[in-house]
Specification:
By secondary structure, this protein is mostly helical. The chain is built from eight helices and two strands, in the order αααααααββα. Helix content is 64%, strand content 3%.
Length: 207
């Protein structure tokens, strides 16, 4: 059962290996805080949808399987939207349209169809957590590279007297602006994808 959790971290990372969910991965990864917020939302929706799909898989008619999954996913996305808008409106405004777009995120719908629909609740929970955390770590890694080089900062949640912004000496005054643009997102994604592919090839050779 441990494999169901760990596979989403590197071996079957949804962003770098399976290459799913690239729209939010590239769209919200301008700052680390955005990636943390989006990742948390995806983990919640993925966990909830996997549990419900696994519970109801024997009761959902084959002909309406996909629409039923979308309704389940949309219900959890609505909860995420309402909580974000109520308690962290700044993050909600920053993520914008990418929050409701979680409904059509290929990772969530794909795990419901390919895994939760065929496995137990326990396995579905582990799969959701592994894939969700793997997606979040991928977003944070992309955002860390883009924000550090593109803005010269690392933006986190403010706590007490801490403003939430860490300035990187040297880069904060002369950042490489291209990393904050769409071209920079594709560039970072390409290099990180190549790195993960190389790591996976080494792992296979050692086996």
């Amino acid at each position: 059962m441990l494999k169901e959790f760990t596979k989403g971290l590197i071996k079957e990372n949804p962003v770098f290996i399976i290459v799913l969910g690239l729209c939010p991965a590239l769209g919200v990864s301008t700052k680390v805080i955005n990636s943390l917020g989006m990742g948390a939302g995806v983990i919640f929706v993925l966990l909830g949808s996997n549990i419900f799909v696994s519970l109801l898989k024997d009761f959902i008619p084959e002909k309406v399987r996909i629409p039923a999954y979308i309704v389940i996913i949309a219900s959890f996305v609505t909860i995420v939207e309402m909580v974000m808008e109520a308690f962290i409106p700044a993050l909600y405004d920053s993520l914008g349209v990418f929050v409701p777009l979680i409904v059509v995120n290929c990772i969530i719908l794909g795990r419901a169809e390919a895994f939760a629909n065929k496995n137990t609740i326990q396995a579905s929970i582990l799969d959701a957590l592994g894939m969700g955390i793997g997606f979040t770590l991928a977003l944070i890694l992309i955002a860390l590279v883009r924000e550090v080089f593109g803005l010269g900062t690392i933006t986190l949640f403010p706590i007490g007297s801490f403003s939430g912004v860490i300035e990187v000496p040297g880069l904060v005054d002369s950042p490489v602006r291209v990393f904050g643009l769409a071209a920079g997102a594709l560039l970072v994604m390409g290099f990180l994808k190549a790195l993960f592919t190389w790591i996976e090839d080494i792992r296979r050779v050692k086996q």
